[in-house]
């Protein structure tokens, strides 16, 4: 058991469970992953042959300075970019064997994304923003509305469903973004610097929310962060430096 699996105050499960919840094997398996940009003397080696896996229901944090390869790695795992070499398996599916339509379907059905800049649509309410991924999957309006409100309650925003992003604080907007990431019941959430635009106290509350989501939804979270004070909330910390893994911290509960 990892150091956070025995924690309490778990929120109520929302109902839509990821299809991979009962599957076996790691949620993410990365093998000898490489990504280079440019050619010749201008070549930049963003990732230099890294390998690791992320277990199901685990919150793994990636740390490292700007330029260490964290965002490049998240983009590759999320199917937003293709590697120069090596392989990535997500929920047992080899991303290298998918065409663009296959990667799009994988992102839509199995991955939720949380960004530093929130990425909400200003003209839509919180509930409508949460409903966007379900609209893309053509979920019926009544079901979509019910799940959006359930997820907003999960992230502590039940009373803010009809407010637009401009009427919410930064922390509240990020909570809406987390609810949106959960909309289609993904097996994996990828979060790139989700607390980067928040003060330290609000940032910690967002990380605690992600921790609670891992417990309640059985979802796996892969998060990149610069903030060392947030590392204690992760099951595991992987440090990147110049595109290589230099340290892994898998601290066990006493």
TrEMBL record:
UniProt entry keywords in alphabetical sequence: ATP-binding, Nucleotide-binding, Transport
Boundaries of every ABC transporter domain copy: 28-254
GO molecular function: ATP binding; ATP hydrolysis activity; transmembrane transporter activity
Highest taxon above the source species: Bacteria
Keyword tRNA processing: no
InterPro entries for the chain: AAA+_ATPase, ABC_transporter-like_ATP-bd, ABC_transporter-like_CS, ABC_transpr_LolD-like, MacB-like_ATP-bd, P-loop_NTPase
GO cellular component, one term: plasma membrane
Pfam families named in the record: ABC_tran
Region (Disordered) residue spans: 1-23
SMART domains: AAA (SM00382)
Tagged with keyword Acetylation: no
Biased amino acid composition, Low complexity: 7-23
Name listed for the protein in its UniProt record: ABC transporter
Organism: Kitasatospora aureofaciens (Streptomyces aureofaciens)
């Amino acid at each position: 058991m990892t150091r956070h699996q025995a924690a309490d105050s778990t929120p109520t499960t929302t109902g839509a469970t990821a299809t991979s919840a009962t599957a076996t094997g790691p949620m993410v398996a990365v093998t000898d992953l490489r990504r280079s940009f440019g050619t010749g003397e201008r070549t930049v080696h963003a990732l230099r042959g890294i390998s690791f896996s992320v277990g199901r229901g685990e919150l793994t944090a990636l740390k490292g300075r700007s330029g260490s390869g964290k965002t490049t790695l998240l983009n590759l795992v999320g199917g937003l970019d293709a590697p120069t070499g090596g392989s990535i398996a997500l929920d047992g599916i080899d991303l290298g064997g998918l065409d663009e339509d296959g990667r799009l379907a994988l992102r839509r059905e199995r991955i939720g994304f949380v960004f530093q800049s929130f990425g909400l649509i200003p003209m839509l309410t919180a509930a409508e923003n949460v409903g966007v991924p379900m609209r893309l999957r053509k979920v019926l309006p009544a079901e979509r509305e019910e799940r959006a409100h359930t997820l907003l309650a999960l992230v502590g925003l039940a009373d803010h469903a009809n407010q637009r992003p401009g009427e919410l604080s930064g922390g509240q907007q990020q909570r809406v973004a987390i609810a949106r990431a959960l909309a289609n019941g993904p097996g994996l959430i990828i979060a790139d610097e989700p607390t980067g635009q928040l003060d330290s106290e609000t940032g910690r509350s967002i990380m605690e929310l992600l921790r609670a989501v891992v417990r309640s939804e059985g979802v796996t979270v892969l998060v990149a962060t610069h903030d060392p004070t947030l590392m204690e909330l992760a099951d595991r910390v992987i440090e990147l430096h110049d595109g290589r893994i230099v340290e892994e911290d898998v601290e066990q509960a006493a």
